[in-house]
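Thread: sanity check for a docking pose with zinc ion

Original post by kr_44:
Hi all, I'm comparing my docking run against an independent structure prediction. Below are the sequence and the ligand SMILES. Could someone generate the full complex and paste the structure tokens? I mainly care about where the ligand ends up relative to the chain.
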Amino acid sequence: MNSTLIKNITLIGVVNGEVIENTSIAIENGKIKEFGSDVSQNSSSYSHVIDCEDGFLMPGFVDAHVHLLANGFRNEDYMRDPLSYYFYKGLNAAKLTLEAGITTVRDCGLADYGFKLAAAEKLFPSPKIQISVMPLSITGGHFDVTLKSGHDMIVKYPGLPHPICNGVEGVIAKTREVARAGADFIKVMATGGTTSANDKTDDIQFNIKELKAIVDEADRLDRKVATHCHGHGGLELSIKAGVHSIEHGTSVDKKNAKLMIDKNIFLVPTFSVMKNQEIAAKNRTLQENKIEGTLKLVEIHKENIELAYNQGVTMAMGTDSGVQEHGDNLGELDYFVKMGMSPLEAIITGTLNSAKCLAVEDSVGSIEVGKNADLVFTKKNPLDDISILKNRNNILMVFQDGFVVKNLIGIP
Ligand SMILES: [Zn+2]
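Reply from moderator J.T.:
Ran it for you. Here is the predicted complex with zinc ion included:
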């Protein structure tokens, strides 16, 4: 039996978000066995005892929007780099993400079933992964990377479906195809994007019949749908079609915020990638014709997300890491606090709410007896200053299923 006692610790994110100061927690066989003042302090009953001499323990975080395999094959890199390079880069992305305190992720495109399987078998350090395999895109849409020359730049190998589908029959077939390839959920490009060559962020992509067909087919296959939404039209159609989560959510307004609350739709605002795109626009590394629009988009996004938050829309934490560097995922919490959340609320959003978005709240997302011991330890108090979590060096220990997968303090 593998059992660990962690003592002299403040627990943050207990059950529904409570904080318990100066207490103990016992882990047994990868699960949280008990916590509080009744936990036995008899060290002979544990295989490991960790005395934290004051410190903070919170649930492992859940990033609801990453792309672990986005690096290595960007644009024309794909023409030069061997296929294997793509996966090795992914291993590093997974490791950095785990070391940042993220113990579970939802991959919104490009991680395939083999990558998920290898991570689940713990062949490399990685968060637990839910995959969408390949996002669905219309011809000329946000994930159609065919150049005007006619050259298709999408990564191609067996097991990775092509993203393009059109028409009700086409989208139903594509939903089945990505599900067959191992998708845990269906990612759909409902509007244009800041990085795509052939569209504008305001463009509506799939029509309502197509979106509804995707949601219905996904439902039949027991999968949920997440839509990438910047423009107002695509966001409105997504809500009408009954998707599970809206990614970015740039154009959310009062009316749609209310509909999202009524329909239990999560908003994953991805402030991190919006900041990244703002920097890219200011440094003029975006396409020239995207710069002005992107700067405006970032401003609208900030305003509208704040409005949605004040209306009471449920948010989950997602970063879109992969578009930017991996490993400072918890910087997203800083944006939540700047928007008006308390540090504790931001932590609950990044743990329990995000676990609910992935429908894994029965096993992770809070410190609760019987849940997996996915935990993050810091010496600095994130309730005093949430921004300490952004720096990976402040994430001193990470536990995954009771195992220490990161240890910067040398406690055995
Ligand atoms: Zn994304």
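The first strand starts at residue 3 and ends at 14. Hope that helps with the comparison, let us know if your pose agrees.
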